[in-house]
Amino acid sequence: MEIANEELRKSLAFEQQAHFEAQKQLPPMKKSRW
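Request: output the structure for the sequence above.
Response:
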């Protein structure tokens, strides 16, 4: 159970990091739309 939670946390952290990187790469006009 704890191992599964650890994997889930890693997965969530990876998703958040990927989303953050994608947001940084968006042009200013697209970013203001969201």
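Residues 2-33 form one domain.
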